């Protein structure tokens, strides 16, 4: 065997960088309240997501003593870099929240200026901030200053504007770059659009052209080929998936397979998908406990259940389980039968 035979292939260059962190592949998981808890983040990363941000954490530290907040700041076992997303409207409070989360192990701080929920926007947080560009600048400058010297970069997630008459995404992107933001994730809709209509890839392309920092495109990306088309049309450095990963966390394997290796992998066998579902349920129960685990798993089983035949009847059986043992047994039985159908067909 010659020396050439034993030479390992050169490592692939990162898709892009966020501060000191090389991001290995273009597809990342979007932060979603009530969805991207630690079990789901770890699962998505294992299945190919290059980043997985925490659920949104309020900048009001007085509220951090709740069980929910403590869990959102728990990153044990997560691969690096660990991303924490913060929401708020007060520059000083957000800066203090960033410092505290860095002390707790955050390796990237993300600022939420994209959430369209009324309860968030009514506090002038999330995408409501897009109406006040000077405040956007003050917030970003304060958080970047708080992270200075720690090696922790700050990123921003936002939208194309408050409404279609006020699409100021490019202006906000320039403010962010000037403040020292390391990367941007842009949902291709205005706040007024929520999740309706089609994502504005033309606007995303304009935002990408306005700055030199990495821009990650978000909105309506639900397949490997759609991800490739969005990257080609917008010039973005990466793509961010939210709803498409619900009930299908293996989508990152498909997207990054095409974008990094040029080929969409063969679909996972049903047995492999079943094993992922059951493993996810067990991690939910272990992390959240009996009562919360049962409730949170129902939501995920509603999404996973779309894989099965007779979805409505199966969903009803999942929802009827009154404890985690019964719920897990039901899932094991339903997905086990689903796998047998494949074997019988073969």
Summarize the structure in short.
This protein is an alpha/beta fold. The protein folds into two domains: 246 residues, TIM Barrel (Alpha-Beta Barrel); 76 residues.
General description of the model:
There is one protein chain. The protein has two domains: 16-261, TIM Barrel (Alpha-Beta Barrel); 270-345. The chain contains 14 helices and ten strands. It has helices spanning 3-6, 38-46, 67-72, 91-103, 118-121, 133-147, 169-179, 201-210, 224-234, 251-261, 270-288, 290-304, 311-320, 324-345, and strands spanning 16-18, 21-23, 27-29, 57-58, 83-87, 108-113, 154-159, 183-187, 215-218, 238-241. The longest helix is centred in the C-terminal third of the chain and has 22 residues, at 324-345.
Q: What's the pLDDT, averaged over the residues?
A: 92
When the domains are counted, the total is: 2
Q: Reading side by side through the largest sheet, how are the strands ordered?
A: 3-10-9-8-7-6-5-4
Indicate the CATH class of the largest domain: Alpha Beta
Compute the CA-based radius of gyration. Answer: 21 Å
How much strand content do the residues show? 5-15%
DSSP strand count: 10
Task: Calculate the terminal CA-CA distance, rounded to whole Å.
Answer: 41 Å
> What sequence of helices (H) and strands (E) makes up the elements?
HEEEHEHEHEHHEHEHEHEHHHHH
What is the third-level CATH name, the topology of the largest domain?
TIM Barrel
List unreliable stretches of 5+ residues: 1-10
SS class: alpha/beta
Largest sheet: 8 strands, parallel
The CATH architecture of the largest domain would be Alpha-Beta Barrel
The H-level CATH homologous superfamily of the largest domain, spelled out, is: Aldolase class I
Count of DSSP helices? 14
């Amino acid at each position: 065997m010659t020396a050439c035979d034993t030479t390992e292939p050169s490592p692939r260059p990162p898709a892009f960088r966020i501060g000191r962190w090389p991001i290995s592949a273009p597809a990342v998981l979007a932060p979603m309240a009530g969805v991207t808890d630690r079990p789901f983040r770890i699962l998505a990363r294992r299945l190919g997501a290059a980043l997985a941000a925490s659920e949104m954490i309020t900048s009001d530290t007085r509220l951090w003593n709740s069980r929910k907040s403590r869990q959102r700041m728990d990153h044990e076992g997560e691969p690096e870099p660990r991303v924490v997303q913060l929401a708020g409207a007060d520059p000083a409070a957000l800066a203090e929240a960033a410092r505290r989360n860095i002390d707790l192990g955050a390796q990237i701080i993300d600022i939420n200026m994209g959430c369209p929920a009324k309860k968030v926007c009514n506090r002038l947080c999330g995408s409501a901030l897009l109406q006040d560009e000077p405040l956007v600048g003050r917030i970003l400058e304060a958080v970047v200053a708080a992270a200075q010297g720690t090696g922790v970069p700050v990123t921003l997630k936002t939208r194309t504007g408050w409404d279609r008459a006020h699409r100021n995404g490019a202006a906000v992107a320039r403010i962010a770059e000037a403040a020292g933001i390391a990367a941007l994730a842009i949902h291709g809709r205005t706040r007024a659009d929520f999740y309706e209509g089609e994502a504005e890839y033309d606007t995303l392309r304009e935002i990408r052209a306005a700055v030199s920092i990495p821009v990650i495109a978000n909105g309506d990306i639900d397949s490997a080929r759609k991800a490739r088309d969005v990257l080609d049309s917008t010039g973005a450095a990466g793509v961010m998936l939210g709803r498409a990963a619900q009930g299908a966390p293996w989508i990152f394997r498909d997207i990054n397979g095409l974008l990094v290796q040029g080929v969409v992998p063969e679909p996972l066998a049903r047995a492999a998908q079943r094993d992922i579902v059951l493993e996810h349920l067990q991690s939910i129960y272990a992390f959240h406990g009996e009562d919360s685990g049962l409730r949170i798993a129902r939501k995920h089983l509603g999404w996973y259940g779309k894989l099965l035949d007779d979805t409505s009847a199966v969903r009803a059986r999942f929802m009827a389980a009154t404890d985690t043992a019964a719920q897990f047994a039901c899932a094991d039985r339903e997905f086990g039968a689903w796998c047998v159908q494949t074997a019988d067909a073969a």
